[in-house]
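FORM 7B: Structural annotation worksheet

SECTION A. Query
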Amino acid sequence: MTDCIWIQTSFHPAFKCGGWAYVRRQGAQATGQAGGARYTTPQRMALTALIAALKGLPPGSVSIQMNDGAVARTAALIAAGRPPQGEAAPTDDLDLWAQLTAALAGRKPAFAIAQPSKAAPTGFSAAWAELARDKANAQGAFASAIPKPNLAKVPGLLL
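SECTION B. Predicted structure
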């Protein structure tokens, strides 16, 4: 069974706060994490989520579904050894792009753009990303694990 990661982000443009969440299936194990920050950007949230989701995952193939198409496309190029050059190269969040480049080393990711669906882990991740966004707006930056009892209810996870 291929390892899978479902990532969703949420951004509130008026308050400039964002949240992210991922669910990861690694064999028969499911894990997840959510986090957020104030005064951030949608790209920063997507990068933070992707880096967090890849942390601790052994090298090899992984299927990644996320709602940020720009980050997914650039990350796929980096993983293939063809980082964007010139005007196509990222100019913001270079610290996170460097971390992501290191996290993608030795991996064979297959990226897909996925919007939330109630019948899939993307819907679960989207709900946690919104919750994380609101918590970050009220209390500041954080990241924490999604409790195992909640992960057991993820639709479409097929453990």
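SECTION C. Observations
The chain has a mean pLDDT of 95. The radius of gyration is 15 Å.

SECTION D. Sign-off
Analyst initials: ____
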